[in-house]
Amino acid sequence: MEKAKISASQLFILMVLFELGSALLVPLAMGAKQDAWLAILLGMGCSFVLLLVYYRLYSYYPDLLPTEYVQNILGKVMGTVLAFVYLLYFMYDAARVLRDFGEMLLTFAYPDTPLFIANALLMLVIIYTVRKGIEVIARSGELFFIFMYVLAVTGFILIVSSGLIDVTKLQPVLEEGMLPVLKVVFTQTMYFPFAEAIVFTMILPYLNNPEKAKVTMLCATGLSGINLVITMLINISVLGVNLTARSQFPLLSTVQSIQVADFLERLDVFFMLALIICGFFKVSVLFYAAVIGTANLFKIKSPSRLAYPMGLIILFLSVTIASNFQEHLHEGLKIAPVVLNIPLYAIIPPLLLLVAFLKNRKKQRG
Amino acid sequence: MKRKGAFLLLMMMVTVLLSSCWSKKELTDLAFVSAMGVDKTKGGSYHLTLQIINPGNVAGGIQGGGGAQSPPVTIYSASGDNIVEASRRASSRISRRLYYAHANLIVIGERMAREDGVNPLMDALDRDPEFRNTSTMVIANHSTAADLVKALTPVDKIPANKVMKTLEFTQRKWGETVKVSLQDVMNGLQSPGGEAVVSGFRLVGNPQKAQKLDNLQESAPAATLRASGLAVLRKGKLIDWLYGGTARGTVWILDEIQGTDINIDWDGKKEAIAYQTVRQKTSVSAQVKNGQPHISVHARVEGDIGEMEVPVDITNPKVITKIEQALRKEIKKELQKAVEHAQKDKADIFGFGEVVHRTRSNQWKKLEPEWSNLYFPKLNVDITVEAYVRRAGLRNKSFLSGIKENQK
Q1: Where is the protein localized (chain A) (predicted)?
Q2: For the segment B310-330, what is each residue's pLDDT rounded down to a tens digit?
């Protein structure tokens, strides 16, 4: 662990940016068609339960990184293996988000640029930031958070004032009943992007005010959840269900349809900025967690020395992870939730909590 | 100090890199496509006609003194088995890179729209990151898209702009056309019956003449472009043209009308009072009773009196009420005509099916398979109109009333 402290508000900002991350850009929860907003909202609600599990684990060991306390809970060998699995997962996830980011840039703005170059340029900045430590990430977060919201509010006003919103496109509500919505909730929205915040267990020990951790986590998830709901509502009411589902990046299509007073149009740059800010913070946080965890697990004194080698691994991983964008999305939306997200987010942490609970009770009695 | 110098040098090098010239597109290397026409050749391949802006001649001004003048746009065309192939093949004829980000107009030839429909070419336009979904689409009425795209226009030098502005202002003042974007058309074509309306445009006069600058040097050009008709698409194919009152009624029910003029008879004189609408709102609702769908259309209009060709004493509120009643009848007749016409065509261009789907989604499942063939053509459509006269211009009684009183 490096010697650093972040405040509750910085944690809040990082979490919001993290959860908005790539979820803002992709057609989230489109399995539920026009009820996508409901699926996101319910997913957010369900993820609160998981967040509370993560919080309880943290409150048993407020000064330790998860990589350390799993060893306390499960014993040296099992704990080390499990911690290693989580570290690999954080790196894989960072590579995924980086790939998402690169693919989006290439698809709509730089068709002639190789993916490696686009990813490398972002990764260089991220490596630099992560070397500087969590305090720097958190402070830059504060700056960009304000910027993001200025963009979002301006975009919202422009969309409303160009008269694009047609709420009837959201009807009929619950056409097929609750079942498709619940299916999406439990296979997608609960984990991506909300429970993905499990990576913040690696950052919670840096919090200067541990008693605020719970409120901060829940509020941040709530705010990002509501923002995602609003975004999806707007996407669907502007584009309609079909076009939203068909779009690789619905938000881009929505922003492109803005036409105010014949001259405020083609505001693709809004989308581009949001994309880069969110991509940057999501990769940074995941990458930082991987770096700090590795340093902790393998007892390396200065974590920042790991930034370059691990950054390169993530960079190469992001390029080789899939041979095309469709394959990448398929892995992310169909395979990863079952193989990775459900066990790592929803099964292992509650079991850990159970063991920790039993252990601590024994300790108190003894 | 040395370290600082090295850092400064590095920063300066980075700025060079950051200007990112990888996918650069120099302005002088771009050919701005302002409009694209799509036709079908006899062999069954696509024929693309691209209207490319001649930047110098748009800014320079045709009225500018003397010398050999060239037109504000240049036309290139190419054929191919699909849109992308045709567009790429066109580059063998153009010295610059085709740039579609400013292509605001898509023209589809009537033959192609009738025989093949617009569905096959949508994906190319929808998928391409350069092309905008907000581009306007029109169908060439009684001509090929090529002829329409090639025509030069006065006043607005770029013909694509002339077409779009015509549609926009006609929709605002006359209401028989509607400016639809690719996105709107796609939304319509994806509905269960695949119906949509697209405005038609027609080249009046000789197509050969329309391409010449000489045509523009006349005060009344021999060949001009004109908004004409409303194309009805079903399953992506053009099946009918709507004109006049039917077209206006259709636009009205679609709630796309932004202003028009309604005439009513008075004192035995035909079309004696002109009423200019200012504000209108149409709402459609659906009921299903005993498995039979009912649609109610409610239109509300506010407007002013624009002209009276007979002496009418509008200082009397009762007269205004009578005028309003006559207006209601007149408007209702037009809307009814539009509905009947659509029912004859079996094309639910108003999206009534969507309204039933939205508000009565349970019953919709039963109605859906037979909607276009059985339910829609026999649909019971209840039309109610509210019309209000709010103002009457600068005068109350007509000039004619004065004549009538003084010359008794």
Answers
A1: Membrane
A2: 888 888 889 899 999 999 999
Q: Which residue has the tokens 């696509």?
A: B46
Terminal Cα distance for chain A, rounded: 31
State the pLDDT at residue B59.
Answer: 65
Strand partners, B280: B301
CB-CB neighbors (< 8 A) of B164 in chain A: none
Q: Indicate the domain borders of chain A.
A: 8-359
HEC letters along chain B: CHHHHHHHHHHHHHHHHHCCCCCCCCHHHEEEEEEEEEEECCCCCEEEEEEEECHHHHHHCCCCCCCCCCCCEEEEEEEECCHHHHHHHHHHCCCCEEECCCCCEEEECHHHHHHCCCHHHHHHHHHCCCCCCCCEEEEECCCCHHHHHHCCCCCCCCHHHHHHHHHHHHHHHCCCCCCEEHHHHHHHHCCCCCEEEEEEEEEECCHHHHCCHHHHHCCCCCCEEEEEEEEEEECCEEEEEECHHHHHHHHHHCCCCCCCEEEEEECCEEEEEEEEEEEEEEEEEEEEECCEEEEEEEEEEEEEEEEECCCCCCCCHHHHHHHHHHHHHHHHHHHHHHHHHHHHHCCCCCCHHHHHHHHCHHHHHHHHHHHHHHHHHHCEEEEEEEEEEEEECECCCCHHHHHHHHCC
- Which of B7, B10, B84, B183 to mutate to probe the A interface, most A CBs <10 Å? B183
CA quadruple A356, A360, A361, A363: dihedral sign:
positive
Residue A39's contacts (CB-CB under 8 Å, 6 or more residues apart) are A29, A31, A32, A181, A184, A185, A188, A189
Amino acid identity of residue B159, one-letter, is: P
Q: How far is B362 from chain A (nearest CA, A)?
A: 8
Architecture of domain A8-359: Up-down Bundle (1.20)
Q: What is the pLDDT of residues B35-74, one digit of tens each?
A: 999 998 888 889 999 999 988 777 655 454 444 577 888 9
Residues in CB range of B245: below 8 A, 6 or more apart: B334, B337, B338
| Least CB–CB distance from B129: residue in A107, A257, A265 | A107
- Which residues on chain A are in Cβ contact (under 8 Å) with B101? 266
Neighbour tally for B263: CB within 10 Å: 17
Among A171, A239, A266, whose Cβ lies nearest the Cβ of B359?
Answer: A171
Q: What is the ipTM of this complex?
A: 0.77
Q: Which residues of A touch B119 (CB under 8 A)?
A: none
Cβ–Cβ contact B25 with A under 8 A: no
Phi then psi dihedrals of residue A44, to 5 deg: -65, -45
| Mean pLDDT, contiguous 10-residue spans, chain A (366 residues) | 85 92 84 87 91 90 87 89 92 92 84 87 90 91 91 88 83 82 85 87 89 90 92 90 86 84 75 85 93 91 88 92 88 84 88 88 72
The confidence score (pLDDT) of residue B18 equals 67
For chain B, give every domain's residue range: 27-59+70-242, 246-408
Q: Determine the residue of chain B that is closest to A169 in CA distance.
A: B358
CATH architecture of B246-408: 2-Layer Sandwich (3.30)
